[in-house]
Amino acid sequence: MGTYTSTKIKEYADELPSELKRAVEALNDDLRQAIFFVLLKNGELSFTQIMTELEIPRKDSSILSHHLKILEKGALIKNKYAKKEGVDSHSFYDLTDFGEDLLDGLMDTLAIPRLVEEPVESLKRVALKVGIKQSEKVFKEATKCT
Amino acid sequence: MYLTPQEVERMEYLLGKSRLNHLTNNEEYALRDLIAKENPSAKDNSLDELIKFGLILVGLYILSKALSKK
Predict the structure, then answer these.
(1) Does ipTM top 0.90?
(2) By the 8 A CB rule, do B15 and B54 touch?
(3) Whole-angstrom distance, CA of residue A124 vs CA of residue A14
(4) Which domain holds residue A45?
């Protein structure tokens, strides 16, 4: 299949905001999708923790770095500094609010059939997401005040 | 829900802290007590399970409040 290019194609393609284009491109790969969901399921993780969770051999660490950078460019994940008990690394990766919102939006398009198939599990998943957002918000607001 | 609004708020704070920071032992006990008040059988679960259960409770609480407004 050839790739067409024309002014009209570019004009219409440019209708998609560049942030969304970068994000969609960033998710267009199995490993990057896996990284995204590892962070969604586990919350923030260090580089080594991501490697361990995805069973990526140490020799391929540069591959993981490369894919993390693409996800960062797509604004789906962020890299931040934090000190954690029992973890040597001070550099952690986590989903951005934009990444979570994008996923919510995509998942919402499937929400109705999912609810019909497995109502309890779907409700639990939705409740868990809402609970996480609410609890983190309450904690952040409380620590801002002190 | 058996918890008072103040207890729900405290549980939300502790759950948020457990995700973004670390709970002290006392905070962990307090969280266990709050969740056990809502569901006594959850008391002996691991901390991770307890936190997940607590987050689902908070989510259900928020969703039910949102639905009752509609």
Answers:
(1) no
(2) yes
(3) 38
(4) 7-96
Task: Convert the pLDDT of each residue in A22-57 to its tens digit.
Answer: 888 898 899 999 999 999 888 889 999 999 999 999
* B17-to-A55, A74, A101 alpha-carbon distances in Å: 29, 28, 22
| Number of domains chain A contains | 2
Interface of B with A in 3-32 (CB under 8 A): 9, 12-13, 15-17, 19-22
Residue A11, in any domain of the structure: yes
A19/A69 same-domain check? yes
| Beta strands across the sheet bearing A77-81 | A45-46, A91-95, A77-81
Which of A115, A138, A144 to mutate against chain B (most B CBs within 10 Å)?
A138
Full residue range of the structural domain in which residue B24 is found: 5-69
